[in-house]
Design goal:
homodimer; alpha/beta; Aspartate Aminotransferase, domain 2; 40% helix
Chain lengths: 423, 423
């Protein structure tokens, strides 16, 4: 494999036209789209139109005339196509953390309303020990608020199956691990959860837009996910939330099953009803008024993914990550790097991690040279591969830079400063 | 009083230069800034810079290089100056509804941790019957989640004082009523609450940026408010949340006192700690990642208010609302309009409501003629007066239009269609 081979791969890449959809700075190889997606070229003009025309000229009238009132559902319906859900099962709202609180509370409520179930017996929320911290915090916060009738059971990746039993209320997992990229088998785990009488809640933050997700095919119960990673919605973009139609139906009579009851979750917000009557649709997972500017930027980002199609994205993602692993091991194999992601592409998302004893300093040196990935404590170099805008030659050049940094120990001068900052 | 008198008032208005800070469409008199503030001229260019340079070129690096990580606190500190709080007591985050959930849960936790208090005895959250619906819904949702140990006591405006007693856990009020503009005496009610052993939570959605608010002078416990009304932050702008320093200190050891525990509430988010250790500051009222684009627009909006100063805003607000009441009663007094707002400007915010039997149709006719206020069921015409950009001659012209609409019964042809839509 040579750099020319990579150029040839790019020439034959069916997604090669999509790179031009994004603005990417000169001199940068961006391998951090799993943290913050790149800027679509169309975003700025669209946001400008929303601000100057819809807000500035339309003012309050734009809630109707520019259909602001439908925007969270319209973007949600687009996200639904990326995650194997029905258009009516997804809404964009709030942050991933807040959405997780909603669906977890709702899932526990569904469990507690099953007559045959004792809350004390079915007390466990099963999760992965290295789940994204906010997911763990949100679950603990809810458990605390509910008076410690439940318990968060934190187990290793390969202990999930064994941990699910008839004491499990909810299995709460991030589909693709935020550090290693290890991917759970959503179908198998959801089936196992259901067989045990539990519900499955999936965090798709590192999946949506990067790997095919089939929520309804897997019979998933609830899901949430992030708008600012592979969906390219911009820093802090609104998140999304999914609830299966069967649960939306079952919850109709229970006003506060989703406990963050806000006016946009009401079946008729503009009635200003003094009594909360939730929408029977996914609208009940809305709470307060969403940022129209932020949702508008998110819509452009989601569109960039929709036009590519999930299979093409997945094929290229696998090719890019396989190539990266291969080249790093070939060219930097004796430099103290160890693969921390699954070697089998079927078992990982669109990112690759290597451990290195001086990972922080190495990443700083890479960023100095324009190769942007990120560091995750204590010793991980994390690289994300957004297939829409990362090219094969990017991979070659990134590995070449990594090789130079490691071979010449370029990171060492900075290391002491860096450690001083971290501690 | 003549139109020329109004032109003279505008010429002598110390805030007259501030109108040019906003983009206002031709042919529109905008009396709905209490629902959605007007667009500041500087917003679009600033947002464009944030999108094209900070996001597009800086990418993930902008969390540090463009200080995105501090933005929610920086804008919060600016809001603090408008509401009589310390810079460290306010953060911008989430929506008003979600923030209310946080502070209400925290206030109940503070109450339950007082050793002398029985939750069952001190079970009431006292509020106003006609509070903004989302506030009522959020409280009921939380009460339901906590197992109905508390109860929402809904009373009339003038019954608040009498309703506060030693069974009151929290007094939860919107400072300025969303319909009538009636304003509570924050100092007196907070004192009464404290004397009874209760805590006071204030919703400042219709106050911040329109009337002077002195949270710390009133010894308020918690507050929340909206970014898209008088703060001109744009549709669905992030909200803000205030917690008094004494409570932030008292809560230090109680990890989930604020139950929406997200990674940005952690004392060191980028440590990716598996255990939640909340920040000891107002940061713990942050949850997930905020929209940087939305916060950036909000900052420009808050700046427009800060440059004016609260006293000048209040003086003009009173002058505008007094003039509006006077002119409407002089010119439309026999047309079935009845003042539904307090006549005494000391007891109201920056809005005026009149009842009319065909209020919906009248408002539609006004909007058709470029005078934008809004309708609130069943019979209210609501007009907001943002003193930064509403002029005295706007008042004259709006009343003139109202007079014409009513005198010629212009609204009647539309009324039947309108009723069909509403029912």
């Amino acid at each position: 494999m040579t750099r020319d081979d990579c150029i040839a791969l790019d020439a034959g890449d069916p997604l090669r036209q999509h790179r031009a959809v994004f603005t990417l700075p000169q001199g940068v190889i961006y391998l951090d789209g799993n943290s913050l997606g790149a800027l679509p070229r169309a975003t700025s003009a669209h946001v400008r139109d929303v601000i100057e025309h819809q807000w500035g000229e339309g003012l309050i009238r734009s809630w109707n005339s520019a259909a602001w009132i439908d925007l969270a559902r319209r973007v949600g319906a687009k996200v639904a196509r990326l995650i194997g859900a029905l258009p009516d099962e997804v809404i964009c709202a709030d942050s991933t953390s807040v959405n997780l609180f909603k669906v977890l509370a709702t899932a526990l409520r569904l469990q507690s309303s099953r007559p045959q179930v004792s809350v004390l017996e079915r007390r466990f929320i099963v999760t992965e020990k290295t789940n994204f911290p906010t997911d763990l915090y949100v679950a603990e916060g809810l458990i605390d608020l509910l008076g410690h009738k439940h318990e968060l059971k934190r187990v290793d990746f390969d202990e999930i199956h064994a941990a699910i039993d008839d004491r499990t209320a909810v299995v709460m997992l991030t589909h693709v691990n935020f550090r290693t990229g290890a991917m759970h088998d959503m179908h198998a785990i959801t089936r196992l959860a259901h067989d045990a009488g539990a519900l499955a809640v999936w965090d798709l933050s590192h999946s949506a837009g990067a790997v095919p997700v089939a929520l309804n095919d897997a019979d998933a119960d609830f899901a949430i996910g992030c708008g600012y990673k592979y969906l390219n919605g911009g820093p802090g973009a609104p998140a999304f939330v999914f609830a299966a139609t069967r649960h939306l139906r079952a919850l109709t009579g229970d006003a506060y099953a989703q406990p963050l009851a806000g006016w946009l979750g009401h079946r008729a917000p503009f009635d200003f009803d003094l009594r909360y009557q939730p929408a029977s649709s996914i609208d009940r997972f809305a709470v307060g008024t969403p940022s129209i500017v932020a949702l508008s930027a998110l819509e452009v980002g989601v569109d960039t993914v929709l036009t590519a199609g999930p299979d093409a994205l997945r094929s290229k993602s696998i090719a890019l990550t396989d190539l990266f692993v291969q080249l790093v091991e070939q060219r930097c194999g004796d430099q103290g790097l160890h693969l921390a992601s699954p070697r089998n592409s079927a078992h990982r998302g669109s990112q690759i991690c290597f451990t290195h004893v001086d990972a922080y300093a190495v990443m700083q040196a890479l960023i100095q040279r324009g190769v942007i990935g990120d560091f995750r404590a204590p010793d991980l170099l994390r690289f994300g591969f957004a297939p829409l805008y990362v090219s094969y030659v990017n991979i070659w050049d990134a590995v070449d830079t990594l090789h130079q940094v490691l071979a010449h120990a370029e990171w060492r001068p900075a290391a002491s400063q860096v450690r001083a900052r971290v501690t």
